Amino acid sequence: MTQTAPRTPPLREIPYMGVIHVVAEAMKRGFVNGHPEWCNLGQGQPEVGELAGAPPRPARIDLAPGDHAYGPVNGIDALREGVAEHYNRLYRRGAASRYTAANVAIAAGGRLMLSRVFAALGTGRVGYQTPDYTAYEDLFDYHAARVTPVHLVTHAADGFVLDPGALEAAAHAHGLSAFLFSNPCNPTGQAVEGPALERAVEVARTTGMALLLDEFYSHFVYEPGGEPAAEPISAARYVQDVDEDPVLLVDGLTKSFRYPGWRLGWAVGPRAWIDTLGRAASAIDGGPSVPIQRAALAVLEPARADQETRALRAAFAVKRDLMHARLVGMGIRPARPSRATFYCWASLEGLSPGLRDADAFFEKALDRKVMTVPGRFFDVNPGRSRRGPSPLARWMRFSFGPPIDNVRLGLDRLEALVREEGAR
Questions:
Q1: pTM confidence score
Q2: Is the per-residue pLDDT at 130 higher than 90?
Q3: Angstrom distance (rounded) from CA 277 to CA 275
Q4: Residue 159 within any structural domain of the chain
Q5: Residues 6+ apart with CB under 8 A from 353
Q6: What are the pLDDT digits (tens) for 276-333?
Q7: Structural domain includes residue 132
Q8: Less packed terminus of the chain by CB within 10 Å, N or C?
Q9: Is the domain of 144 the same as that of 239?
Q10: Is 4 within a domain?
């Protein structure tokens, strides 16, 4: 009888991304979305219901006959123009160079847009920072044949904020073709802003390095004292020529407009780049949903958009203050108070020994029906090239995305956990 060699499985092992891993582990203990007994302080989405001061949530989406057909791969012209005007109105008042529909690409969500961006990158060195958004690691790995990752570490002493001087040094030392980072940053809750962000754009302009900015938390911004900031953050404010400066901005409705389920994102940048992203989209995804794009036009109507984003900053500033004060009271210490996003990035070093490791903390919190995200997931490490334990193993991301009563209940449970473990 002929012996045949065992067949290699057709699919490789793929681990869950950080937050999805958290959800998967919670589901083993009975979690489902909306379960009233669970507190999801790990969630990466904002609360999506009615919010004080915000416009009413849409209850329906009407379909036109043409909506049943394929739409343009880079999005319908009306929404592309609407996004361009959104940026011009917020960030480019009085600027000679302004965005147009040709400077905008639409996709079914931010991760898909970032996938298009990486698919379009040529061969070269692309920088990234740690800690940063967990999905970046796989983006690098999927395109390892063309894209060489270059690591730039940020430090707790600096609040884990990217230093534009270090960015410029890395651009020259490594000949970077691009640099990718989230700003405001997931998970740290910090932002490169003002003169520092202007300098980062200048570095891109003078070196030719593409600045790839994930700005999904652009409207979740707070003053140093915790008050809601008056306006959002975007590198669009510092672009001189929208078609020449090598700056690509990725954002969407997911976070700042509280519509994660709509899966609608965009990229704003030089028109030649946008054309290339459309070509990538023709092979990767074929273009976004037309009905959702038409619905998005109403969301971006100026008065409605401003009402929504002002209301979310006011509501989330209160939750930010609550979470920061409660965590500090437990001995869980943020590197700096959150200036943006809806996350607190904090060290467990001051807790009792059984809770200092983020994975141990995560498991014990799950036992109390509270979800958090261990810091190691944000230690972006393409190809697992850096060996040994993660330097972020005692850091944790806490989300104040849920409604405030749920946030408060989760903090009550964590406080009880810390107190009881400390008494052992």
A1: 0.95
A2: yes
A3: 5
A4: yes
A5: none
A6: 999 999 999 999 999 999 999 999 999 999 999 999 999 999 999 999 999 999 999 9
A7: yes
A8: N
A9: yes
A10: no
